[in-house]
Specification:
The complex is a heterodimer. Chain A is about 20% helix and about 15% strand. In chain A, a hairpin with a 2-residue loop joins β17 and β18. In chain A, α12 packs across α13. Chain A is rod-shaped, with a radius of gyration of 50 Å. Chain A is an alpha+beta fold. Chain B has eleven helices and two strands; from the N terminus they run ααααααααββααα. In chain B, α1 packs across α2 and α5 packs antiparallel against α11. Chain B is elongated, with a radius of gyration of 29 Å. The chains are: A alpha+beta, B mainly alpha. At the A-B interface, β1, β2, β4, α1 and α7 of A face α1, α5, α6, α8 and α10 of B.
C-alpha cells in the first residue's frame, strides 16, 4: 500500500510549510522511535505509538501499539483503536491526523498537523536569530507597495501632473519636466525633432482619448500643396477614394495620420511602400485603350505591381503650336520614349560634342575646357537643373557685338524689334555726335561739334543713314554672325524671323527625380551628351537606364541574377499629393 | 521506503491530462501565427491590429494570473481545485511570455510600455525559477531532514547543548568556559545573505593551552572547538577529565552534524521562497504598469 504523508510544519504563528513523503508498507508504524515508518517527536508520543492498517470500505484502522499510547477521537475521547473514513481525524498529543482524499496512485493520504501553543518558541541555549527571509526583513507586502507606487508615479502620476500642473514650475524639476515622454511608444520622425514639438506631446495630441486630428497637423503644415483628405475624398480631383488606398485592416479612417504614421521605428511618416499604390493600382494596364479614350486608368487583371512591370517612360516634349485663339504658343506633348524617330524640336542649334571637346573650345580667355556643370546648374532643392540662360551661360563666348569698329557695344538678347530699335538708336547717336555719316572708328567721348544750328535736312539724313546701318547690322547679326549660331532662322517668311528656343524644363514632370542623390555618378553615365552633335537628340535616359541600378521591392529578377540593386517603390518617383496635375496627366 | 516528493509537484505540471499544457501550446501557436501575418506598411509593433489582438489577450491573461493571489485566500467558495489553478498559472504564465513578446514585436525603449514588458519578463522568469525550486528543493530538504523536522532537530540540539554544558562543567574552568562560549556564540541564520549562502558566523572563546594564547576565533563548522578539545585532550593527564573531554569531543561532533543540517535546511527553505519576493511584488508593479500602458496609449492615441 502507498501512503501519502503530508506534514504541515508550522514555522511561526501564521506561517506553515508542507512536507510530503510517500511510504510503501501494509502496516504504517508511527512513533518517536527512529525505526518507525513515520517518526513524530513530542510530548504524548510513545516510541511505538500507532499502527495503521487497511480497513473496510476505503477506511483504515488505527490501533495503539503500546500500553501507554493514547488516541483522541473527534469527540476528544481517549480510545485505543478506531476506524477512520475519508474526511475524519484523530489526535495524538499535539498532532492532528486527518484522512484526506488520496491522489491517483496513492491508497491512503494522511495530513498531519502539529498544533502549537501560540507564542511557544523553540528553546535553545544560544540566542536565536532570523532563520527565514521574512525574519530578516524581506517583506513581500512592502516590496509590492514599492513597485506599485513606482509604476504609478512614473507611468501615470508624473505624466498627468505635467499635463495638468503648472508647467513653468515643473520644468525646473528634472523628474517632472516632460514627464509624459515616458508614454511615447517610439521615436519621432527626424523632421519632427523640433523644439516645441518633440518636447510637447500635446502639440499633436491635443485631445485626450482622441486620435490625432487633421487640424493638429495643419497647425504647422499647409494644406496646399498637401491636399486635405476631405478635398481628396470630395473633390474627385486626384486620388478620389482615400479609403481605398488605406491598407486593409489598419486602424485608419482617412485622417492625415492614417497614412502619416508617427512614433514608428523605422519611421513611416512618409510612406514609400509599394502597397500604398498597388493596393489600388495593381491593375493598371499601360497603354490600355480605355485609359487613352477616357483619360483614366484602367483597372483590370494583371498590370503594374512593381517597378519591374512599369512601362517605358513617356517624354513630355514642348512643341510650338499655332492656333486661331491663342496664336503662336507652346504645347506639352507626351510621347512614348520608344517612338521611332523621336526628335526634340526646340529651335536650338547646339552641339554638345563641340562644347564638350576634351581639348577645349575657344573662349574669351583662350582655349577653355567646358564641363556639364558650366551650363547646367542644379536647382536649390537638388532635384532638376536650372534653365539655361543666354546672358548667364552663353554670352561670355557668344557676344552680340554688331559694329566691327566698336566691340564694346552689344545688342540686347531680345526679340528682333527691340534689337533693331537699339541698333537705330546707336547709329542715330553716332551720326548726331559726328555731324554726319561715320566711316571709321569713332571716339564717342570726343564728339566733333560745329557751332550754330544744324541744317534743316540734318535729321532726315541722320534717320536715313542710321536706318540703313541698323538694317545692315541686323541682317548681319541674324544671318551670319550671332543669332543663327544658336537659333533657327525662319526663312520661309518674307519678314526676317528668329525662332525662339524652348527647352523642356522637366521631361518627366510626373516623376520626382533627385539629381543630388545621383551626384556620385558622372553625368555622361545617363546623359550621352558628348556624342551628340544635334540639339534634336534626346539626351534624357529611359527606364532601361534606371533599371540598371533600380529594382522594385518585389522584384525577384535582381535576386536571380545576383545583382545588387537599389530597391525602389512607386513612391521613389511618383508622388501622392500632386496638386499641379492629374495622375493621368497627358 | 520514503520516496522523493517531486512526483507530487510533477502532478501540478501534468494536472488534468496536461490540459493547460495544451491550452498554452494553442495560445503560443495562435500568437505566433498572428505575429507572422505579413505587415504591409508598418514593421511589426503593438499598434497594428495584430498588436492589439495580442495585447488584449495578454492583458486578460495577466489579470487572470494575478487572480491566483486572491484565489489562494479563498479556501472554500472558489471553483476548481487549487492544484488545477496552479497548473494553469504555470502554463499560461509561460504562454504569456510569448504573447507579450510578440505583442511588443521585440521593440524596446525608455518608456512605460517597455517598463511593463521588462516587469513581465522578471515576473515570468522568477516564476520559472520558482517552479524549478519547487520541483527540486523539497526533495533535497526531505533528504537532509531524514524524517526529523526542523523543530525536532532544534529540540535535539537544545538537549545536546545542555548535555555539553553539564559535561563541561565537570571539567576544569578553561574547558567549561570554552565549551560554554562555543555553545552560546553559535549562530544559525542571521542576515538574508548568510541564510542564502549558508554562511556560519559562529564564534568561540578559546582558553589558552600550553604555548597557544587565549583567543576569540571563528567557530565555523564547530572546527575550532573540536580542534581545541583535541589539543586539550592531548595535554590531559587521564582520569575523569580525559573521559569528559572525550565525551565532549563526540558531543560537539554530533552538534556539528545537527547544526549543519539545520543550516542547510533553512538555506534550502530560503531559496524555496526567495523567488516569491521578486515574483509577487513585481507582478503587482506590472499590474499598475499595465494600466498605465493601456491608458497612455489611448490618452495619446
Amino acid at each position: 500500500m502507498r501512503w501519502l504523508i503530508r506534514k504541515t510544519e508550522s514555522l511561526s504563528a501564521n506561517q506553515g510549510e508542507l512536507q510530503d513523503s510517500i511510504v510503501e508498507t501494509d502496516k504504517l508504524r508511527v512513533g518517536a522511535d527512529g525505526k518507525a515508518d513515520l517518526v513524530l517527536l513530542g510530548a504524548g508520543m510513545e516510541a511505538e505509538h500507532l499502527v495503521l492498517t487497511k480497513g473496510a470500505k476505503g477506511s483504515f484502522s488505527v490501533k495503539t501499539n503500546s500500553p501507554k499510547a493514547q488516541i483522541q477521537n473527534q469527540d476528544n475521547k481517549s480510545v485505543k483503536k478506531l476506524n477512520l473514513s475519508e474526511g475524519e481525524y484523530f489526535k495524538v498529543g499535539s498532532y492532528i491526523f486527518t484522512y484526506v482524499k488520496a491522489p491517483t496512485g496513492i491508497d491512503y493520504a494522511l495530513s498531519i498537523t502539529q498544533v502549537k501553543e501560540l507564542g511557544a518558541k523553540a528553546t535553545s541555549l544560544f540566542p536565536l536569530v532570523a532563520m527565514t527571509l521574512n525574519e530578516t526583513g524581506f517583506n513581500m507586502r512592502r516590496w509590492s507597495w514599492y513597485w506599485m507606487v513606482f509604476a504609478l508615479l512614473v507611468g501615470l502620476v508624473f505624466p498627468l501632473l505635467w499635463m495638468y500642473g503648472p508647467q513653468d514650475t515643473l520644468k525646473s524639476i528634472p523628474v517632472l519636466s516632460t514627464a509624459d515622454q515616458i508614454w511615447s511608444p517610439g521615436p519621432l520622425a527626424k523632421a519632427h525633432h523640433i523644439q516645441g514639438i518633440a518636447d510637447n506631446c500635446q502639440v499633436c495630441h491635443s485631445e485626450l482619448f482622441s486620435p490625432v486630428k487633421d487640424t493638429d497637423c495643419e497647425n504647422c503644415h499647409q494644406v496646399d500643396p498637401h491636399l486635405s483628405v476631405a478635398e481628396l475624398t470630395a473633390g474627385n480631383k486626384l486620388h478620389t477614394d482615400v479609403e481605398a488606398v488605406l491598407v486593409e485592416g489598419s486602424f485608419v479612417e482617412g485622417r492625415c495620420a492614417s497614412c502619416h504614421i508617427e512614433h514608428k521605428d523605422p519611421s513611416i511618416v512618409i510612406r514609400e511602400d509599394e502597397p500604398m499604390c498597388t493596393n489600388c493600382h495593381s491593375g493598371i494596364v499601360p497603354e490600355s485603350k480605355k485609359a487613352q479614350e477616357k483619360g483614366e486608368l484602367d483597372v483590370s487583371e494583371g498590370g503594374i505591381t512593381s517597378f519591374e512591370q512599369h512601362p517605358q517612360f513617356k517624354l513630355s516634349m514642348v512643341e510650338e503650336n499655332q492656333s486661331q485663339d491663342q496664336g503662336q504658343h507652346w504645347l506639352t506633348q507626351r510621347y512614348d520614349f520608344d517612338t521611332e524617330g523621336l526628335k526634340e524640336d526646340s529651335n536650338l542649334e547646339f552641339s554638345h560634342r563641340l562644347h564638350l571637346n576634351p581639348k577645349g573650345i575657344d573662349g574669351p580667355d583662350g582655349r577653355t575646357e567646358l564641363s556639364c556643370a558650366n551650363c547646367h546648374e542644379p536647382e536649390q532643392d537638388g532635384l532638376l537643373v536650372k534653365p539655361i540662360l543666354m546672358e548667364q551661360h552663353c554670352s561670355s563666348c557668344h557676344s552680340l557685338t554688331f559694329e566691327p569698329t566698336d566691340l564694346t557695344r552689344q545688342v540686347p538678347h531680345a526679340n528682333l524689334l527691340i534689337v533693331k530699335q537699339s541698333l537705330e538708336e546707336y547709329y542715330s547717336r553716332l551720326y548726331a555726335l559726328q555731324n554726319g555719316p561715320v566711316r571709321s572708328k569713332v571716339n564717342l567721348d570726343r564728339p566733333a561739334k560745329r557751332p550754330g544750328k544744324p541744317k534743316p535736312d540734318f535729321y532726315s539724313a541722320m534717320k536715313e543713314w542710321a536706318d540703313d546701318k541698323a538694317q545692315d547690322a541686323l541682317e548681319e547679326l541674324v544671318n551670319n554672325k550671332a543669332c543663327s549660331t544658336c537659333h533657327e532662322i525662319d526663312k520661309s517668311k518674307p519678314k526676317m524671323q528668329v525662332k525662339p528656343v524652348k527647352i523642356a524644363h522637366s521631361w518627366y514632370p510626373k516623376s520626382r527625380f533627385d539629381h543630388s542623390s545621383h551626384e556620385v555618378f558622372e553625368c555622361e553615365s545617363c546623359h550621352k551628351a558628348s556624342d551628340s552633335d544635334n540639339s534634336a537628340d534626346i539626351l534624357i535616359p529611359d527606364i532601361k537606364n534606371c533599371r540598371s541600378c533600380h529594382a522594385g521591392a518585389s522584384d525577384t529578377h535582381a535576386l536571380l541574377t545576383q545583382e545588387i540593386k537599389t530597391v525602389s517603390s512607386c513612391m521613389s518617383c511618383h508622388q501622392y499629393h500632386l496638386t499641379q496635375m492629374d495622375v493621368s496627366h497627358e | 521506503m520514503t520516496q522523493g516528493s517531486s512526483s507530487l509537484y510533477q502532478s501540478i505540471l501534468s494536472y488534468g491530462g496536461k490540459r493547460y499544457l495544451w491550452l498554452a501550446s494553442i495560445l503560443i501557436t495562435f500568437s505566433m501565427v498572428i505575429f507572422l501575418i505579413p505587415h504591409a506598411v508598418e514593421s511589426r509593433n503593438g499598434g497594428t491590429w495584430q498588436g492589439y489582438t495580442l495585447g488584449t489577450l495578454g492583458a486578460l491573461i495577466i489579470v487572470w494570473l494575478l487572480w491566483l493571489g486572491i484565489r489562494k485566500r479563498q479556501y472554500k467558495k472558489a471553483s476548481g481545485t487549487f492544484q488545477g489553478w496552479v497548473s494553469a498559472h504555470i502554463y499560461l504564465g509561460i504562454a504569456l511570455l510569448f504573447i507579450a513578446s510578440f505583442h511588443s514585436a521585440f521593440q524596446l525603449g525608455l518608456n512605460i510600455h517597455s517598463l511593463a514588458y521588462v516587469l513581465l519578463l522578471a515576473v515570468v522568469f522568477s516564476g520559472l525559477w520558482g517552479l524549478w525550486a519547487y520541483l527540486t528543493l523539497p526533495e533535497r530538504t526531505s533528504k537532509i531532514r531524514n524524517g526529523i523536522s526542523r523543530d525536532a532537530c532544534m529540540a535535539n540540539l537544545s538537549e545536546l547543548d545542555q548535555n555539553i554544558i553539564s559535561t563541561a562543567q565537570q571539567c576544569k574552568i578553561d574547558v567549561a568556559n570554552t565549551c560554554e562560549s562555543a555553545v552560546l556564540k553559535t549562530v544559525i541564520g542571521g542576515r538574508a545573505f548568510d541564510i542564502l549562502r549558508g554562511i556560519d558566523r559562529s564564534k568561540a572563546e578559546l582558553a589558552a593551552i600550553a604555548d597557544t594564547a587565549a583567543a576569540s576565533v571563528s567557530n565555523e563548522q564547530q572546527k575550532s572547538i573540536l580542534d581545541w578539545l583535541a589539543k586539550r585532550l592531548s595535554t590531559s593527564l587521564g582520569g575523569k577529565e580525559t573521559e569528559s573531554l572525550q565525551q565532549l569531543l563526540s558531543l560537539f561532533a554530533l552538534r556539528r552534524v545537527y547544526i549543519s543540517r539545520v543550516r542547510e535546511d533553512i538555506r534550502l527553505h530560503a531559496w524555496l521562497k526567495f523567488w516569491l519576493y521578486i515574483h509577487v511584488p513585481m507582478s503587482l508593479g506590472l499590474l499598475i504598469a499595465l494600466v498605465a500602458h493601456i491608458l497612455s496609449v489611448f490618452m495619446y492615441w
